[in-house]
Amino acid sequence: MTDTKTNPQKEDQLSPEDYERLLDQYHLGDQEMTAGAIIKGRVVKKTPDYILLDIGFKTEGAVPASDFADPKEIEEIKIGSVIQAVVEKTRPQDGYFLLSKRKADILRALDHLEKAYHSNNWVTGKVISRVKNGYTVDVGLEAFLPEAHADLRPIKEPNSLIGQSLKFKIMKFNRQDEEVVLSRKLLLQDEREKRKRRVFSHLIKGEKTKGTIKSLTNFGAFIDLGGVEGLLHISDMSWGKINHPSELFQVGQEVEVVVLDFNE
After folding, report:
1. How far apart are CA 167 and CA 254, in angstroms?
2. CA–CA gap between residue 42 and residue 52 (Å, rounded)
3. Mean pLDDT, to the nearest integer, of 182-187?
């Protein structure tokens, strides 16, 4: 009977693939390779399907080209550029660590939006398209802008907002569901109130001030004083009698007037 013995040294031998995996597993780097972690990498190669990053490990990280919504963004990436991405898988796949730039962008956007929501600050976003009862706005992720909150007054040409980059307040924020509801109306109301306070703080009865004629009526002219409208009555326009304010003024004209009275 033959006694078959195994060779301990042979069992302990590692294949090149196992050795590289161990190097990555025990590599003492500044970045932690855990699923969901955000890491930085430097671009070392661009292929039609992936952007390859040096992430401080023997194995490179790979960001799918599909993570870049705009093809021009890929064209602008240079060898050596630094990209932030989320670790998708901690074990190499097809020879690379799979990363996601899209998820990293969303996480950064959520952090920014959450801070703005709790501090009541505004955010900037680009109106992408019209949807039922509102608009889709890109604020780092897709947010909803209700039609009733698109402006102070109903918009005559709703499609005119598409493509514009505007400021918004955040009405609703749910990080877990990545749900964001915006309001441009609240922002415009805040800005209007600030302008009113600024104008009233400088108005003095009996003193002169300058403004721009906003509209003309049969009984006078409404003048924009920088966020507050004042009425210049037809009887105070001239020492002589006139039939209509258009005989003296036109919309857009700058005028100097005396403040007779005001009420905040």
Report:
1. 29
2. 8
3. 95
Contact 77, 65 (CB under 8 A): no
Q: What's the chain's average pLDDT?
A: 84
Query: What value does the mean pLDDT take over residues 38-45?
Result: 91
Strand-pairing partners, residue 209, are 257
C-alpha to C-alpha distance for 100 and 137, rounded to whole angstroms: 22
Q: What is the DSSP letter of 60?
A: P
Domain 11-102 fold is OB fold (Dihydrolipoamide Acetyltransferase, E2P) (2.40.50)
Query: What is the number of other CB atoms lying within 10 angstroms of the CB of residue 253?
Result: 13
Q: Regarding the domain delimited by 120-190, which CATH topology (the fold level of the hierarchy) does it fall under?
A: OB fold (Dihydrolipoamide Acetyltransferase, E2P) (2.40.50)
Cβ atoms of 254 and 211 within 8 Å: the answer is yes
Q: Which has the higher per-residue pLDDT, 195 or 121?
A: 121
Strand pairing report for 97-100 and 61-64 = parallel
**Close Cβ partners of 124 (under 8 Å, ≥ 6 residues apart):** 139, 165, 166, 167, 168
Calculate the alpha carbon distances from 136 to 141, 152, 264 in Å: 10, 18, 37
Residue with tokens 């004083």: 225
pLDDT tens track for 223-239? 988 878 889 998 888 88
Helix (H) or strand (E) holding 137: strand 134-138
Contact 224, 232 (CB under 8 A): no
- Amino acid letter, 194: K
How many C-beta neighbours within 10 Å does residue 47 have?
Answer: 9
Average pLDDT over residues 95-113: 90
Share of the chain above pLDDT 90, in %: 44
Q: What is the pLDDT of residue 134?
A: 96
Side-chain-facing half-sphere of 257: CA atoms under 13 Å: 26
Residue type at 224 in one-letter notation: D
